[in-house]
């Protein structure tokens, strides 16, 4: 995985990083508040030798440096700790004193520094003073010659003992900086792992790879789209409407040698916005001057009539069973060249009805009656209706909602189309999160024009135009070709 993809995953799951940092800072605060202050007392020794003891200066220096290392171990020995406790009882055992003592030496010098760390400031100083005195005394005994004279090594205290006025721990600034850094690193790791474990379809590139088809459009998410799903009125100049127009252009030029005139719009699961996209695509095509026929072939959960505000009581199913002619149930929507064939009454056998010869004959006739036929079909993974309709169309358009459908579900939907040799024209990523920069560019270039009047019957939940349909008898609004089809 490249660096840019990792950065995209971190940006997508920024809340994980924020949450991890907050938890890390919370734990750091708890540890810092509960920690007991610790003080450090120190003393520095200088190891020297009389000039008459060693004739060669270089050998003498090497000799003293080796001695300093031995003395560092002596300062933390059991014997010296027991001597300190016996000389100055401070409420600590010899083992506790031994653990509190640390030594450091500077390379190339004969300085030896001992530190005592304790939660009690005064006790740390007392232990250090006693340790210093006992250490000098012990070295003196060790280095005394058998004849009672002083040996070649002498220990002098050159600094201390002294104790720090402020506690050396806890250090809030250091702790918070370290806790925040660890939180950021842990958050980045968790965000990347979350992104790798996320199987949902998150971007257009992944949708292209999964379906093996070109990306024809990205429809941006808009909070007001649920209340006003159609690209009419004020929504006609929105970024969502412009994305649908781009889809219209890409769809018309996806294959100039074999253009698709009958297009089935489907999705892997329900609720991914295929019906809304079918309606908006039909509206966009009609705006461009095409004669468009929108067919609601989702006979199990038809929604086209609800979105467009049309009476869907009589429609496709009634035509297929031979009760009415197609010209008697096709309705014109608005003042555009858009005709709608609603679903009609709910049949007991949708799959058989959509796969019948009557359906094939109807699509053949509709192909000759309109420039483009858009068919809203059922989801592919729920039932077989969508595949049955797509087989009879010139091609299919697969709609996927970003962040909802998994990659395996999209792949299964694409396989169901490929397995019956359906021509997959392309895919559409619906409700996509558009970068703020792209949205700003569109708004900056957007031209505000007076919105055209919205049809009185348009929009979700609008009342059907029964009166207008009765006055026209569906005859004045249908095209000449559909009149011929109704026979």
Automatic annotation (TrEMBL):
Establish whether keyword Lipoprotein is in the entry. Answer: no
CDD domains from the UniProt entry: BY-kinase
Q: How does it sit in the membrane?
A: Multi-pass membrane protein
This protein's UniProt keywords: ATP-binding, Cell inner membrane, Cell membrane, Kinase, Membrane, Nucleotide-binding, Transferase, Transmembrane, Transmembrane helix, Tyrosine-protein kinase
**Entry's Gene Ontology cellular component terms:** plasma membrane
InterPro entries, sorted: AAA_dom, Bact_polysacc_biosynth/exp, LPS_length_determ_N, P-loop_NTPase, Wzc-like_C
Cite the EC number.
2.7.10.2
- Pfam families named among the record's database cross-references: AAA_31 (PF13614), Wzz (PF02706)
Q: Which domain of life is it from?
A: Bacteria
Polysaccharide chain length determinant N-terminal domain residues are: 1-87
Q: What SUPFAM superfamilies does the annotation carry?
A: P-loop containing nucleoside triphosphate hydrolases (SSF52540)
Enzyme class, first EC level, given as a word? transferase
Q: Where is the composition biased (Basic and acidic residues)?
A: 465-481
What residue intervals traverse the membrane? Answer: 12-33
For the region Disordered, give the residue spans: 456-487
What residue stretches are annotated with the AAA domain? Answer: 261-402
* Gene Ontology MF term list: ATP binding; non-membrane spanning protein tyrosine kinase activity
Reaction(s) catalyzed by this protein? L-tyrosyl-[protein] + ATP = O-phospho-L-tyrosyl-[protein] + ADP + H(+)
Q: Which family does it belong to?
A: Belongs to the etk/wzc family. Belongs to the CpsC/CapA family.
Concerning PANTHER family, the annotation shows: CAPSULAR EXOPOLYSACCHARIDE FAMILY, TYROSINE-PROTEIN KINASE
Q: Any idea what this protein is called?
A: Polysaccharide biosynthesis tyrosine autokinase
